[in-house]
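JOB MANIFEST
job_type = single_chain_structure
chain_count = 1
residues = 98
[input]
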Amino acid sequence: MNIMAKPRIIKVAVISPYSGGTEEATASNVVRALSLGRHLLSNGIMPLIPHVYFTAMLNDSITEEREYGLKLGAEWLTDADLFLVDSIDGTLTEGMQH
């Protein structure tokens, strides 16, 4: 065992709503997800937030781009050690279920 080895970083996938039906609600959901990510980072945990990351580059309202983003996100989440599910009203959206 290498005593000088760095400790393994825990990766936590944040599963939370993205689209809120309005631009304001979607923006609020993004802020909420990023706040969770910041909290994880401040505790030495690497947050994986694909629904925020990929929607910064892909248009969620274009079916092909949304499906591609969901596929990429699902692949990325295979790296997660844990999942943090943040459901505002107790239900999972279609994207969260994917």
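[summary]
Residues 23-42 form the longest helix (20 residues).
The mean pLDDT is 88.
exit_status = 0
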